[in-house]
Amino acid sequence: MWRESGLGAPDDVDRLHRRVTELEQHTAEQHRQLSERDDELDAARAANRELMTRLNRPHPDGCNH
To answer: Please, how many CA atoms are within 13 Å of residue 22, restricted to the half-sphere of its CB?
Structure first.
């Protein structure tokens, strides 16, 4: 009767709740991986800046390599 009236929940509410939970966990894992990659990228950029600074720094012997 509830289903016929349109007031009832879908028969597979438990399955939908499990799917939502799975998707939330997947999203959290993706955010964690993205954060790790952002950290790695920041470290690589910092290393690159340091190397470029060293490369562009004048050498004491007057040679600029």
So the answer is: 6
Is residue 33 within 8 A of residue 39, CB to CB? The reply is no
Report angle CA 27, 31, 33 to the nearest 5 degrees. 115
Question: What's the pLDDT at 26?
Answer: 98
Residues found in the chain:
65
Task: Name residues whose C-beta falls within 8 Å of residue 64's C-beta, 6 or more positions apart in sequence.
Answer: 58
Residues 6+ apart with CB under 8 A from 2: 8
Per-residue confidence (pLDDT) for residue 6, from 0 to 100: 66
